[in-house]
Amino acid sequence: MSKRTSRRDFIKKSVAATTGIFVIPHIIPASALGINSVTAPSDRVVMGAIGTGSQGTSNMRDFLQLGNAVQFVALCDVDSNNLARAKGIVDTAYKNSDCRTYGDFREFLAKEKLDAVSIALPDHWHGIIYTEAVNNKLHVYGEKPICRTIKDGQTIVAAVKRNNIIWQTGSWQRSLPNFRRGAELAINGRAGKINYIEVGLPDGGGGIGTPPVKEVPPELNWEMWLGPAPRVAYRGVSHWNWRWILDYSGGQLTDWAGHHIDIANWGAGLEHTGPVEISGAGVYPAEGIYNVPVEYDFLCKYANGIQMRVANASRLKLGMGTTWYGDRGWIHTDRGNRLSASDPKILEEVIGENEIHLYKSENHWQNFIDCVHSGNQAIAPVEVAYHAISVGLLGEIAMTTGQTIHWDPEKEEITGNPRASRLLSRPYRQPWTLPNV
Amino acid sequence: MKKQYLITLLAALLITVIPSCKKGTIYKTLIISDQSDNDRTTSAAIVRQILDETGMFNCTVMTTPAKAEDMSAFSPNFSRYKLVVLDYAGEVWPEKTTAAFTDYLNNGGGVVVCNPKSDPISGPSDTVTVSKRKDFEIRTVVFDHPVTKGLPVRWLHASDELVHGVNVGGENVQILATASSGAAFSGTGRREPVLFSRNYGKGRIFTTLIGTPDGGENTALHCTGFIVTLQRGAEWAASGSVTREVPFDFPTAAGVVLRPDFREIDLEDAFANIGNYDIPKSTRYFIWLQSQIRKAAGNEETLLMLEKKMDGVLTNKEATVEAKKLILRELSWMGTDYSVPVIKSLESVPELRDDMEYALARLQITDN
Q1: B314 neighbors B343 (Cβ within 8 angstroms)
Q2: pLDDT value at A207 more than 70
Q3: Cross-chain residue pair B279–A295, CB shorter than 8 Å
Q4: Could you report the predicted ipTM of this complex, rounded to two decimals?
Q5: Model confidence, pTM
Q6: Cβ of A212 under 8 Å from any chain B Cβ?
Q7: Using the beta-carbon criterion (under 8 Å), do B279 and A210 form an inter-chain contact?
Q8: Which of A77, B67, B115, B245 has CA atoms 20 to 30 A from the CA of A258?
Q9: Beta-strand relationship, B110-114 and B203-208
């Protein structure tokens, strides 16, 4: 632990060195001084990754593309095939075979001396592993949604605050120009005063039926994959398809809340609060082990009068993405560099010097590394991620209970509904517990 | 074969079905079938069964004279009925029958049309073709019509023919649901109508293009999507509104759902079967329970009734471990102190240890 702290101090010192206090320690070879665009090893952020499935590998590749800014040294996964494949990617990039591998995150965290970790896991593991990583004073690039329950989210947010580390959520839409521009136009009133927002997230579907119980393949540590979730027989449902089972995910709703709800909050000034009333309904499959809502539609009311409807895209006129409706028009943004408005002139508006200028990042992964160096807040900090996913989770509770949920965004609790309040957290299966902060 | 056919027909003609009456209006209904092929006889009998299930319709099935026989005497007294269901692909009716039918509609009659590859007024269409039989996705396209209000946007329909090239036209017609005749059907890529409605004079017509018999299991007619839209369409045609709720087992984009006996699960069925819960066989009794808990939100009396039934599954020695696990999970958030002793009594069952601890841990969080 003390070594890790000293490494970060060293990075800070190195940054200081480039800004004028020109002290060159003799131990650094001349070739590593950053001359000819080579980053000094001491400026590289030493990273590891927990979770090397599709999203974990994608993030790792994005970090590797930053070249010498980062150095991946260790990986962890409960699937030894994924782990070996990911090690191959790292070793190929560095032309060596040095990348270390672990099957247990506890050993990974105990043995590795890292600056930062990139984490991409099924949601049911986020509460424990994010909190442990942060408690180990690591800077974290963490996939959305940051939590499976409100309680998990509150714990992670508290851990980040207490440990004063840099957190970047994988809500990378924030680092794309159309989303930032759309949000900036909205928050500066270019569609008038925002009173209603529609957020379209993907439809569910593609049922997985009920696959038969299978033997666990030798590469997979199923017990560790399940971790705090209830023990169930292995039916071949782990990678990717965990998204369709409530024990691990809330489906497309929670998978995408960290994108379009996050953007909606950004453009409406709702990043640091939550709704006060949530009501709606989900459509659940009657057959098969797919038990997340396959369609969903709920309305959130905020204390300032704004209402936000979150639904699967097929239910909404403008489909996927975020639409801010103001008293003078609307602004819509979505993937594929989409940005449109009720009047095209809105899109040509210039934002004045004294208006709100939203945080600008052109590369989500670079922004994280920059912030690790500078100590500045990243573009997608943890509280903001929490206020995006909590909308999805409260919607999930409204749909599960069939009731209108009253939420106190200050006290962070449901009022007047003990049954719904129980759904704010989940007991973990022994021996797992949510770590103390 | 022919004899059996005749017996079926006689049975259909002679038996007037008196459905088990639930409270509320009962709509006197005439189902008109034809003798052109055996499939129509089968589907008319199934359509009657599906309508009977609601307890809202008092159905009579009438069969027209056989092909090439004299139709001139075919003249039902439409005005005696609130609803006329045409499950018919036979010959064009005599002019006076057609006129009487039009009067019936103009005067506020309700009509449901099933699979009109031809219609009794204008005859067969030469533009209509049908695809090979397969599962396909239907999209609800109108959400404020009584028939489709509350339905999922996307739902899979089981093993049916998609009808291509039906020209839906005329005044006051609304296409309510469509399916793509895209690559899967070697079709045009156009969205074909599947369900549509028409207000005609003071009357209403609901047309369904799904639910075609297949000469075997008739899977398409067992699709919950077909059954429920037919029941809702019939209520709307008869009354102008729909009082029935969209059931929990309406299909979704995640998979087709069939009702083997056309029946909706009720409390008795659910708790008779939920204890036998076996994931690969059927999850629907448990999903039914979840839907009922949602529906009972705020009604402590109903919730306690359900809770006691759930406790009954926990104490039932015959009930499967899988069933008990699911019940424990549900009780963990909706249960009351009433269930705590029952849950604790499972301590001696090692397979349920985790689930029991889960339920007790959550149930103790009773204050905000």
Answers
A1: yes
A2: yes
A3: no
A4: 0.89
A5: 0.91
A6: yes
A7: yes
A8: A77
A9: parallel
